[in-house]
Amino acid sequence: MQKRVGRQAAQLGALLLFNFWIQVGVASSTDPGKVIAGWVEKISLKDQTFIIKAKLDSGAKTSSIHAENVQIFQRDGKKWVRFNLVFKDVDGTLHTIVMERPRVRRVRIKDHDSEPDRRPTVTLEICFDGRYHETEFTLTDRGNFLYPTLLGRKFLVGVAVVDPEHTFLTKATCD
User: Fold this and answer.
1) Across the chain, what does the average pLDDT equal?
2) In which region does residue 65 sit, left (phi positive, over 0), alpha (psi from -120 to 50) or beta (all else)?
3) Cβ density class 99-116: b for 16+ within 10 Å, e for less
4) Which of 119, 140, 127, 75 is nearest to 101 (CA)?
5) What is the pTM of this model?
């Protein structure tokens, strides 16, 4: 009886592990499945040569990016946003990129210490693990944070599983 229970438990464990690998996929830049990523990874913006650090945060729904001089304006009857992305790359060089993007929506961000904040959201294309991904970012001043970019759940779904024990497991550039 005890041997049969032990064998069943081993079979169940093997089945669960197999199911995990089917859902997650092998960590590879060419595999379209999910990759295993650390809690901090290096990414790049499409058409830019510098690399920036991003914190992966499954507790945040929407991704956010450090932006300064955020201005909402009208273009062809639609709301657009003009902003400066200001980053130090992994070498410490400061980069400023002036961008204009259609405003996708405004999100309400809850903060534990203050009133909720409404932030404009834009779509940007980033390189994560050697593949381009288009995702929404709220524009906010992250100058007091260690990482200028935060990748939230809406980005992580279908893309990555976060291993909080590690950092820098993925490829930062798209070739």
Assistant:
1) 82
2) beta
3) eebebeeebeeeeeeeee
4) 75
5) 0.74
